[in-house]
Amino acid sequence: MELVVPDLSGPVPISGSTRLYAVLGAPVEQVRAPSLLNPLFARLGIDAVLFPVHVEPDAFAGVLHGLTRMKNLDGILVTIPHKAAALRLADEVSPAAEVAGAVNALRREPDGRWSGENFDGAGFVRGLTEAGHLPGGRRIVLMGAGGAGSAIAAALLAAGAAHLTVCDPDAARLRELVARLEEHWPGRATGEADPPLGEADIVVNATPLGMRPDDPQPFSVRGLPPRCVVADVIMKPRETALLKAAAALGHPIHHGAHMLDHQLDLYRTFFRLDAPPGQ
Amino acid sequence: MELVVPDLSGPVPISGSTRLYAVLGAPVEQVRAPSLLNPLFARLGIDAVLFPVHVEPDAFAGVLHGLTRMKNLDGILVTIPHKAAALRLADEVSPAAEVAGAVNALRREPDGRWSGENFDGAGFVRGLTEAGHLPGGRRIVLMGAGGAGSAIAAALLAAGAAHLTVCDPDAARLRELVARLEEHWPGRATGEADPPLGEADIVVNATPLGMRPDDPQPFSVRGLPPRCVVADVIMKPRETALLKAAAALGHPIHHGAHMLDHQLDLYRTFFRLDAPPGQ
Lengths: 279, 279
Hints:
Domain Pyrroline-5-carboxylate reductase catalytic N-terminal (chains A, B): 139-211
Domain Shikimate dehydrogenase substrate binding N-terminal (chains A, B): 23-105
Oligomer: homodimer
Order of helices and strands of chain A: EHEHEHEHEEHEHEHEEEHEHH
Keywords (chains A, B): Amino-acid biosynthesis, Aromatic amino acid biosynthesis
CATH class of the largest domain in chain A: Alpha Beta
Protein name (chains A, B): Shikimate dehydrogenase family protein
CATH superfamily of the largest domain in chain A: NAD(P)-binding Rossmann-like Domain
Number of helices of chain A: 10
Number of strands of chain A: 12
Strand order of the largest sheet of chain A: 2-1-3-5-6-4
């Protein structure tokens, strides 16, 4: 007879001494940060909890202000649609966040100021590379010039993409992103109303289209060349309508989950999440 | 060989769909609400988490505003020193909260308004009664005219106390409390600078004195008549210096924990915490 020892190491119970982290989005049901970071806290023996916050854009500044005034709250994650607003409200931001025009993590510094960082781009490129889809030298089409799209654009060019075409129905924010990219990587990024799908090696959806069951697809996969990689940043559902359609036509696909999987170590370093002394 | 089956029913893991409750105080390390309500959520199979928020008085209004704008947050508990401020900021309050001048629970109503209730008084009197210290017909001295003190004053008079003397170094708030009590129970409550300990049947500490190791005691137990009951509302430490000193002189003592123990059912009803259908 074998004894199966159950894992009883579950979450640290929440008490008055528990430190706080929050993740803000609208909607927020799909965020995976709570199910990734809370088990990490438990593994490290850190008395902390990350909770999801559903906040609409008109209330974002007020909610963020309230969170930063909680003395036992140490960190904030920000997701769609608040990443650009978070950049404007941070006391200081990293160069990566500056270029991306978006912040997805805020940390309380020892002097009480809140500094913003962006890991979307680095996390996405790390995931893409580890899946064997190296962006270096490739022609890439990116749908969406919002927070995630901007961060991914900067990271793809930093990783050596030959050319990047960004598409977004908001002409003003598209123009602004291309201008920021042009400063750092002149001549390698353009903005287009219609995606040049026929020449793409990799196409990335960085719009929110695909989160809701009745969303239209961000583009038609029928115009893609054979072997073109189709990547999505949407994490829930894992198999978006776009990825299903691409897979049905034989395209290699890349799931949104990879972006966050590869951000976990980056978050851990940023939030200085070390096991307490003696563990 | 006996098989011991471990209880694996632990907390529901936190995900993006988890509903939120918060408890606000300064300090907040001592609050027991997280360790009482989170296990209750787990027992009922409710996907919700209560987290502690440390907020100083100058930031209370901003933090409360931010919390009420979180669309997935359903309830707020308030403890020292924010109960009077919570009354002012609630959209509507119950009669019990109105008389107490303090709110310790806020609930989001279906129309989006936030209504405030106060369970300190009812919880305290229920605990005192179940411990055999019936307040009816007794002469009672109450130290502290703040949020907890005001709520307890109203509940003690409602429960038939013969006379209540309230003491507080803040003369203005003491006068205001006695005026509110006088409206409902004329001639049965007075405010005094010095507690008339020699004639008391029950003395209640409703000040924060005793939470910190170097706090002075709220009054000297040496002046109490024999058999006078000494009650504290402080929950942590359980054995305050006051209760230790009273016990050493042979007085019956009543711990602060009873107040919250007897509030749990009241909170459950107020927040409409029922097991999901089918459980």
